[in-house]
Amino acid sequence: MRTIDLTPLYRTIVGFDRMAHLIETGARLDTATGWPPYNIEQTGEDAYRIELAVAGFGPEDLSIELKEGLLTVTGKKAATEEGRNFLHRGIAERGFERRYQLADHVRVTGANLEHGMLSLSLVREVPEALKPRKIAINVGSASASANDAPLIEGEAKSGKAA
């Protein structure tokens, strides 16, 4: 049995719907076939690369789509069976669909097809509002007036140090 029933979890959590959805999606994606083979590589602190072995597929046969954090790579090969008589057929030219659930703020920056390898470059770009920031600590009386409010780095008033 490979299915996970998250119904009890839904009854006791509030506001974690996205996380539960990610768990369900991950469980469904895990049952996918192993074709085509792929690598996921971390190329920097916030940079990643997905490589898929798509020998025999050209750029016109491949489709890459990103929708709501789900990256979908699809390959559809046009049938060219006319006049061909195979004695052995070992090269798979079947279509495929490979899906990857991306974390928040991860976006695809490029795609390159070379020597049968499709490389997708990804980068995580955290918005400035979500990055950590330093807050200055005032020393003095406990009852601070509006003029003595703690300063946030980059928002210092004239004459005050942050």
Describe this structure in words.
This protein is mainly beta and 162 residues long. The protein has two helices and seven strands, in the order H-H-E-E-E-E-E-E-E. The longest helix is centred in the N-terminal third of the chain and has 13 residues, at 17-29. The model has no long low-confidence stretch (mean pLDDT 79).
Cα(first) to Cα(last) distance is: 58 Å
Q: Helix and strand string, N-terminal first?
A: HHEEEEEEE
Spatial shape: elongated
> Class by helix and strand content?
mainly beta
> Strands across the major sheet, in which order?
1-2-7-6
How many individual β-strands? 7
Alpha carbon gyration radius? 25 Å
- Roughly what percent helix? 10-25%
Mean pLDDT, as a whole number?
79
How large is the share of residues in beta strands?
Answer: 25-35%
Query: What profile does the largest beta sheet have?
Result: 4 strands, antiparallel
Assembly form of the protein: single chain
> Which ranges are low-confidence, i.e. pLDDT below 50, for 5 or more consecutive residues?
none
Summary tags:
162 residues; three-stranded antiparallel β-sheet; 12% helix; mainly beta; elongated
What would you say about this model in short?
The chain is mainly β and about 160 residues long. It has helices spanning about 5-10, 15-30, and strands at about 40-45, 45-55, 60-65, 70-75, 95-100, 105-115, 115-125.
List the helices and strands and how they pair.
Elements: H1 7-12, H2 17-29, E1 38-44, E2 47-53, E3 62-67, E4 70-75, E5 96-101, E6 106-114, E7 117-124
Antiparallel strand pairs: 1-2, 2-7, 3-4, 4-5, 6-7
